[in-house]
Amino acid sequence: MRLQQQIQTLNLANNFLLNGVSFLETLCALKTLTEMMVSGIARDIVAVDDEVMKAGQSVITEEHAEMSNGPGYYLSHKVPLKDSRGEVIGMLGISFDITEQKKMQEKLQRTHEEKVETMKALAGTIAHELKTPLATIHSISQGIQNYFPQIINGYQLAKEAELPVENIRPSVFKTLVSIPDAIKDVINSTNTVINMILMNIREEIHHKDKFKKCNIVDSINDALNAYCFADGMRQCIAWDQTQADFSYFGDNLLTKHILFNLLNNSLFYLANSPDPKITIEFKKTDHNNLVIFRDNGPGIPKEILPNIFERFFSHRKTGTGIGLAFCKLVMESYGGEIVCDSEVGKYTAFILKFPLL
Q1: Which CA distances in Å does 101 have to 14, 35, 71, 104, 108?
Q2: What is the per-residue burial (b if ≥16 Cβ within 10 Å, else e) of 149-171?
Q3: What SS3 class is residue 52?
Q4: Helix (H) or strand (E) holding 206
Q5: Are 71 and 99 in contact (CB under 8 A)?
Q6: % residues pLDDT > 70 (the chain)
Q7: Three-state SS at 169
Q8: Which terminus of the chain has a smaller tally of CB atoms within 10 A, N or C?
C-alpha cells in the first residue's frame, strides 16, 4: 500500500512539474485540505520552492507540516528543472518522512536532559555532604600539628632520660612529623575536586577575581609531581622543558586539575598499550599560546568527538562526564578554549589555547 502511494505521489509530481508546483504541494493531493499544513507552515514551504526556482540552485532542507494526526517532518531535496536554454521551467523534489526519527531524537534529548538534572542534583548533594566531614578532618589535623611538637619533645626527653619507651626509627619519626601536612594536602585536593563538581553544576568559575599571572612550566611540573602514576607510567610522558615558556592569567590549581583530567583520560586508554606515549608541546600563534597534550592511544570515534565536552557525557562505563566539561569551563574562564583532534587507531590530541599576555 505504501509503495503504491509513493508511486502515485511521483506520478502526481511529474504531472505538476511544468507548472512549477512543489513536491510537497503535489503530496497534498493525496490528503484533504484539513489534513494538510496550517498557518504559515505552507507558506514557508512554498517560499523554499520559490527560492529554488528563483536562484536556480538545489536545496536540501528539513520541512515541517501539521497533519491531522500530529506534526510531520520531512527531509526534502529540491532541484530546479531547466530547459535547453538554461531557464528554470519547474522544480523537482523528493521528500523522506523523518517524523519517527525526529520523535526519537526529541525523546533522547528529553532523556538526556532529565539525566543531567538528576546527576546535577545528586552531585550537588554529595559535594555539599562531603565538605562537612572534610572540614572536621582538617580541624583535627590542625590540632595534631599544633600539639605534635610537644609530643616529639616529650619523646626525646624520655629517650634522653633512658625511660622505658619504645624506640621509633628515624625514618618513621620523619614520616609522622609530615602526616598533618600530608592530610591537609589531601583535603585541599579533595576540596578542589568537590569545587570542580560544583562549578560544573553552576557552569561558572566563582573566583575569577583571584586570577593572577602564572607560569605554564610551573603548572605542568606541579601537576606531574602531584599526580599518582601507576608503576612505570611516569616514564611514558615526554616534554621538553626548554621549549619557549609562557605566562598566562588564571589559577595554577585549576590548570593543574585540567592536566589531571587529561592524564586520567590518556592513562586509562593507554593502560594496555605495549608502547604508551604522551607528549606535551608548546606552540605560539598570532593570538594564542598553545599547549598540545597528545597520546598514542586508540583515539576517539568521529561520532563521539563533538560531544566530549558536554557536561555528564561519557562513553566510558566508569566515566562521569565531569572532567572534560570542567576543562572547557576553566579554559573559557581564562579567555581561551580547549579543542580536541583525534584519529581512531592513531592518536588523540587536546589543544589548550591560552590568550597572549
Answers
A1: 28, 21, 13, 5, 10
A2: eeeeeebeeeeeeeeeeeeeeee
A3: helix
A4: none
A5: yes
A6: 81
A7: coil
A8: N
Q: State the Cα–Cα distance between residues 125 and 43, nearest whole angstrom.
A: 50
pLDDT tens column, 260-274: 999 989 999 998 888
Q: Extract the C-alpha cell encoding 305.
A: 568527538
CA 55 to centroid of chain Cα atoms = 40
- Whether the per-residue pLDDT at 7 is higher than 70: the answer is no
Q: Are 64 and 39 in contact (CB under 8 A)?
A: no
Contacts of 124 (CB under 8 A, 6+ apart): 197, 198, 201
pLDDT at 188: 76
pLDDT tens profile 330-345: 999 999 999 999 999 9
Specify the pLDDT at position 318: 67
Grid cell 563521539 is found at: 304
CA distance 285 to 263: 25
Point out which residues pair with 82 in neighbouring strands: 88
Closest CA to 37 of 9, 5, 74, 91: 74
Overall average pLDDT of the 272-301 stretch: 93
Angle at CA 79, nearest 5°, toward 74 and 85?
165
Euclidean distance between CA atoms 291 and 262, whole angstroms: 12
Asked whether 108 and 100 are in contact (CB, 8 A), the reply is no
Up-side HSE of residue 97: CA atoms within 13 Å toward CB?
Answer: 8
DSSP-H helix ranges across the chain = 2-16, 23-27, 41-55, 99-160, 170-202, 216-226, 252-270, 323-333
Q: Which three cell numbers stand for residue 255?
A: 590548570
Contacts 24+ apart (CB under 8 A), 300-303: 300/340, 300/342, 300/344, 300/348, 301/344, 302/344
Residue 351 C-alpha from the chain's centroid: 13
